[in-house]
Specification:
The protein is an alpha+beta fold and about 450 residues long. About 55% of the residues lie in helices and about 15% in strands. It is built from 14 helices and 10 strands.
């Protein structure tokens, strides 16, 4: 296909010039052959008609009534011999034959042919049908051995002898003439016809080429202008992408500030202190505190867990109030963040959590790190609270800026349509993730629940 690529690489004018030139040459050749053939036939026919008229005017008066006579009498034959053997007609004619319609030669200057019968040729049939037949060629008929021996083309003419009152062909005169000058006439006719066809074809092709080249220049100019515009649009698109990246970075910074100071205060309170307080509340209802027979040491240990949760909740509340939300996360990797939040959940709930971490990506924005921490924390708490903490799994992947965190359990699941818009749990997580340009997905059913957050690669702001 290399030739096709090279052909398509050419301009439209070049393609037309090559293809149109080849087509024009083929058409010129075909038209030239047709015109030359027609001219040759016309020249030969006109020359043969002139000769036939002359011969007929000389020979016809010497012939008997061919309608009633089946054989040529000696007087007519002698008159023909004398007429055809002398003068201008004798010098011009090579041979002469008189045919009957059954193929019998009634007279010939070659006496051995008189009376012989030959197959009726197509040319003879046309002549008996009333048409003049003229051919300029080397003789090839069975009866034309002497003419063929000359080794050169001759003018062969079949002229019907017509009955005066009926116009019916009663005999055919066949004669060969040297046709001196006819070959030169045909050569000149061929040359003039080929020259005329070539000139007209060249003129037609040049006019079309001029129009095509003019159109090609217009197309090339428009194509060049279009390329310039595409280049300008590409530059604008690249600039727009740069602005979009700057906007994404600004959005991250604004989202981080908003996370710290404005929109996510309620979500942070719910994801942090509220979880600790809820855990302490669950512990207050435990059998170790309600049962009066509980040993003092076990009761004291349970109260210590409660005090620890409440103290941790108070610590986070102070951090939120002072504007310091999880400062230890800022320089942590995803692996450290996941292990930290999973370990805290294990410590609080005494449940097992399987962790799968695959990290080789670049440093992430602080807002994304906080989002990852809160996402895992809220998802694990929901898995423990609503799914019983059955087969909890945290899977975190970070490759070349693509971040995907998945938290799943094998609990009873829930109906996502029953989550109230005012709920700060899942709704707060979705809003937090959406504000950073990520995606949030929940899959739940009888086989358990899986929540997923995803961030596509983007440049991290300063």
């Amino acid at each position: 296909m290399n030739w096709l690529r090279r052909w398509n690489a050419r301009s439209l004018a070049s393609q037309f010039f090559i293809a149109g030139g080849l087509v024009s040459i083929v058409v010129m050749f075909l038209v030239g052959m047709l015109v030359t053939h027609l001219i040759e036939e016309a020249v030969i026919h006109n020359s043969g008609a002139a000769t036939a008229l002359y011969v007929d005017s000389v020979v016809a008066p010497l012939l008997p009534d061919m309608q009633t006579e089946s054989l040529l009498d000696e007087g007519s034959a002698q008159a023909l011999d004398e007429t055809l053997g002398q003068g201008a007609l004798g010098r011009r004619l090579v041979s002469f034959k008189l045919w009957r319609n059954d193929g019998t030669i009634l007279y010939s200057n070659e006496k051995e042919l008189v009376g012989q019968k030959f197959p009726v040729s197509e040319k003879l049939q046309k002549a008996f049908a009333g048409s003049l037949v003229a051919r300029y060629e080397r003789p090839g008929d069975p009866e034309s051995g002497a003419e063929r021996a000359l080794g050169k083309p001759l003018m062969e003419i079949y002229n019907p002898v017509l009955q005066p009152w009926s116009g019916q062909a009663v005999a055919v005169l066949e004669f060969y003439e040297t046709a001196e000058g006819l070959a030169d006439s045909l050569a000149h006719a061929r040359l003039r016809s080929w020259g005329a066809v070539a000139a007209l074809t060249a003129l037609f092709f040049l006019v079309l080429s001029a129009l095509v080249f003019r159109g090609s220049r217009t197309i090339e100019a428009q194509r060049k202008d279009l390329k310039e515009r595409v280049k300008e649009l590409s530059a604008l698109l690249a600039e727009n992408r740069g602005l979009q990246r700057r906007l994404q970075r600004a959005s991250q910074r604004v989202a981080a500030l908003n996370e710290t100071y404005l929109r996510s205060i309620g979500a942070d309170l719910h994801d942090g202190p509220a979880q600790h307080i809820a855990y302490a509340s669950l512990r207050l209802d435990s059998d170790l505190l309600i049962n009066a027979s509980t040993e003092p040491e076990a009761r004291e240990k349970e109260l210590a867990w409660i005090r620890s949760s409440l103290a941790e909740a108070m610590t986070e509340i102070r951090n939120i109030c002072s504007g310091l939300v999880l400062p230890q996360i800022e320089k942590s990797s995803i692996t450290e963040i996941v292990l930290r939040v999973v370990e805290a959940h294990r410590h609080k709930t005494e449940t097992l959590v399987e962790t799968i971490i695959d990290e080789d990506g670049p440093e992430l924005a602080t807002a994304v790190k906080i989002c990852i921490y809160r996402f895992i924390q809220e998802a694990l708490n929901n898995a423990y609270r609503h799914g019983g903490g059955v087969q909890q799994t945290v899977r975190a992947v970070s490759h070349n800026g693509h971040v995907c965190v998945e938290v799943s359990d094998r609990g009873d699941g829930f109906d996502p349509t029953e989550v109230r818009p005012s709920s700060l749990g899942l709704v707060g997580l979705r809003e937090r993730i959406d504000s950073l340009g990520g995606s949030f997905d929940i899959t739940t059913g009888e086989g358990g629940t899986t929540v997923t957050m995803t961030f596509e690669p983007m440049e991290v702001g300063d």
